[in-house]
Amino acid sequence: MTKSWxxxxxxVAGMTAAVxxxxxxxxxxxxxxxxxxxxxxxxxxxGPAPPMVPVGAQIxxxxxxxxxxxxxxxxLKFPANYAMPAHSHPTDEHVVVVAGxxxxxxxxxLTKTAGxxxxxxxxxxxxxxxxxxxxxxxxxxxxxxxxxxxxxxFKYVNPADDPRNAKTSTK
Length: 171
Prior knowledge:
Elements: H1 2-32, E1 47-48, E2 58-63, E3 71-78, E4 83-88, E5 93-99, E6 102-106, E7 117-119, E8 124-127, E9 133-136, E10 142-149, E11 155-156
Antiparallel strand pairs: 1-2, 2-3, 3-10, 4-9, 4-11, 5-8, 5-10, 6-7, 6-9
């Protein structure tokens, strides 16, 4: 019985060491393919959000490329009284509120009701893939950090809400 216990202990210790070594190796390989990011809020370089997002939002890509099938992290800034109509994404969406507040709701249409949930600074939301949801700000500008697995895509419940379908006037 003692010999069996020793063999099992040796096997477990060996496997633990092997898994640890492989994990370290993977981290080193992954770490070599990316640059570190150290950025204060004052260093953010904002630009207009992509056309799949209603006009008025601004974006700053922190890491990755939201348009590719890989991990990404972005900051999004919404003005006061901004609305994101009901939509879904093909991948999970993770949101952390870093300034202001953002109200979320689930369903096929943006409604401002008591059943919605407002998250302030430090609040977190996970919107699972293919779940219809909406968001809006009230009186204050709001900034979020959004991260997940790309590519980022929006499927609006009502195609008329999709800014990419907006008709442009020619004069």
